[in-house]
Write a structure and sequence with these properties.
- The structure is a single chain.
- By secondary structure, this protein is mainly alpha-helical.
- The chain has a single domain, classed as Tetracycline Repressor, domain 2 (Orthogonal Bundle).
- 74% of the residues lie in helices and 0% in strands.
- It is built from ten helices and no strands.
- The longest helix is centred in the N-terminal third of the chain and has 26 residues.
- The mean pLDDT is 86.
């Protein structure tokens, strides 16, 4: 029988091992979405069987890495001020969100390959709710369009952020200007369309 005093120590050791493995998974998958369990185990400084002792499958490990990245992102976004003018607040949110999405573009690619779409939407609920709340406020302020479904507008922001991350990862967008491109594009999508009979100024 294991002495009671050794059990907390073993739990603490296991928690440290899990933290190290998840951190290694996040780092490896952020650089290479096809990183293997062996790659992650090597980066974590543990054996392959130790990884499988905590995570039964690679998808389970990928999900843990994505959850860890999303939680870290949420902690950063808490400090982003979203009060006041909705357009300016959207600029601040997009700039902050973009840096997080850019860091985890390959990680998201890895997750999309092994996790159901429903689970991915569930994991991104917090981010989607934040964008939806801000768009609704912009509609109330009369600065964002209200002629399209709110869910579609929220998804459009999500698609643009992730699309920009992928384009940057592939070298088709300059990282130095991507945040500006994303912000301009999203603001154009959310802008109130001109009246059908409105004529451009001469």
């Amino acid at each position: 029988m294991v002495p009671a005093e050794t059990r907390p120590r073993r739990r603490a050791d296991a928690e440290r091992s899990i933290t190290r493995i998840v951190s290694a998974a996040r780092d490896c998958l952020s650089r290479d979405p096809d990183a293997t369990v062996d790659d992650i185990a090597k980066a974590a400084g543990v054996g392959r069987m130790t990884v499988y002792g905590h995570f039964k499958t690679r998808p389970e490990l990928v999900e843990a890495a994505l959850v860890n990245a999303l939680q870290a992102g949420e902690q950063m976004l808490v400090d982003v001020g979203l009060d006041g003018d909705a357009q300016q607040a959207m600029d601040r949110l997009l700039t902050s969100s973009w840096s997080l999405v850019a860091e985890s573009a390959a990680l998201l690619t890895a997750a999309q390959a092994v996790l159901p779409a429903g689970r991915l939407r569930e994991l991104h609920t917090g981010a989607a709710d934040r964008v939806e709340h801000l768009i609704r406020r912009g509609q109330q302020q009369g600065v964002f369009r209200a002629d399209l479904p709110i869910a579609w507008l929220v998804n459009a922001v999500h698609y643009l952020l992730n699309g920009a991350a992928e384009e940057t990862r592939l070298g088709r967008l300059d990282p130095a200007s991507t945040a500006e491109v994303v912000t301009a594009t999203v603001q154009a999508v959310l802008a109130i369309p001109p009246e059908p009979n409105a004529h451009p100024p001469h």
